[in-house]
């Protein structure tokens, strides 16, 4: 007898990407937030991690954290580490400021009053404004319409408006290295003697 056995070919074709039936029965239907793999009922782990982008519309006690699920303890720890690394206090304070700006009778409110309404200290408020001003596309007004201070354009960006496009010019690499202790943008509009 020569040639490949038909049984062998069939066995190879049956090998697909689906997990074995045993794994499917144990799956929770959820996916690991780190690797995207299935979360099995007896191995999956969940945790509340810090997330400065989360501001709950109705419940301030739910601000700043979210629930993540991972396929196991190793990936859960990686998610926790990343969440801690990505935390920006100013982002959370700014989110709270935005929420306060849309509350009733706040449309004409100055920033310091909005900060009080958002339960921010003056340092928190400055940190929030600093975070916004340092962003790629800072807001010039809060959702409620209140104007925000904007930072002066940096000197190294003004190139005379020649509009040169070299193509090979590398955009600034994401190494902004913000430190939450350096929040020094002033709260505008309160210093008129
Ligand atoms: Zn995973």
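Sequence proposed for the structure above (193 residues):
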């Amino acid at each position: 007898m020569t040639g490949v056995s038909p049984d062998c070919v069939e066995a190879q074709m049956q090998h697909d990407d689906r997990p074995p039936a045993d794994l499917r029965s144990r799956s929770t239907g959820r996916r690991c937030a780190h690797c995207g793999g299935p979360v099995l009922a007896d191995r999956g782990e969940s945790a509340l991690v810090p997330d400065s982008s989360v501001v709950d519309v109705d419940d301030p006690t739910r601000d700043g954290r979210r629930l993540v699920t991972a396929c196991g303890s190793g990936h859960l720890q990686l998610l926790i580490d990343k969440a801690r690394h990505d935390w920006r206090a100013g982002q959370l304070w700014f989110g709270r400021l935005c929420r306060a700006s849309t509350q009733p009778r706040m449309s004409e409110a100055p920033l310091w009053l909005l900060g009080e309404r958002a339960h921010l200290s003056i340092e928190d408020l400055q940190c929030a404004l600093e975070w916004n001003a340092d962003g790629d596309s800072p807001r010039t007004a809060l959702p409620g319409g209140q104007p925000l201070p904007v930072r002066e354009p940096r000197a190294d960006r003004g190139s005379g408006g020649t509009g040169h496009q070299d193509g090979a010019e590398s955009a600034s690499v994401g190494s902004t290295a913000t430190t939450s202790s350096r929040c020094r943008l002033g709260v505008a509009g309160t210093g008129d003697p």
